[in-house]
Amino acid sequence: MADNFKNNENVENNIPQKGPLNFIIGSLTSFSLFVFFYLLSNKIAIYFSIHKPSNSSEIVQNISSSINTLIIGLSFLLTFSFAFIGIGLFIVFIRSFFMNKS
Q: pLDDT tens-digit profile of 10-51?
């Protein structure tokens, strides 16, 4: 049991500390993915608004409309998730300059 604890402690000590460079690169990557998926989500929404479901059955039309709404909603959820991650990493980047190294 004591050997297991020592191995875990050694593994934790070998992990390099994340610095401001890591945070700003992650933030810029996340923001660029946000812009890409925002443009893609807009194109998906425009596509589904132009191509309405045209089925004779009301049930099939309701299901296809629900699936279209689900796809649009998930694409925008992905888009704004990347935006919030980018904002969070940028805040951590700013915060890393005010932290004391101990």
A: 556 777 787 888 899 999 999 999 999 999 999 999 999 998
Q: Is position 45 within any domain?
A: yes
Range of the structural domain that residue 70 is part of: 27-96
Answering whether pTM is above 0.85, one says no
Collect all residues with Cβ–Cβ distance below 8 Å to 87 and sequence separation of at least 6: 27
76: pLDDT strictly greater than 60: yes
The answer to whether 96 and 23 are in contact (CB under 8 A) is: yes
